[in-house]
Amino acid sequence: MADNADMTETTNREMIGELRKVLKRLHYPLEVMLVCTRWYAAYPLSFRHLEEMMQERGVFVDHSTVHRWSLKILPILARIFRRLKRSVGSSWRMDETYIKVAGQWKYLYRAVDKVGDTVDFLLTAKRDLEAARR
Question: DSSP class of residue 128?
Fold first, then answer.
């Protein structure tokens, strides 16, 4: 348990260090930048929506500023999280189903590991088992 906490603390310090290298003049706290970037990446929000949401919270930031933060911060976070991603292992299964998306039937392939977590998925209009395996 302590090893996991140490690894998380090391990762946090590493991430903050890399972000500070890219973000030179910090007019806003790093936490505000990370919250805006996270909301943009995680939810279907526009930069103008984020500008409005931050104003409701007392932080006045322009939508173009949030856009610049996202362009700088997201590649760094992707690189760090890709490094921390655990390997799938040798045991996984593929699940195939047929679902309706926006009124049209599509094939959904899911790769599921032995714990039951989704490793990857593929949504196609035509059945393509070989592409799903790749």
Answer: -
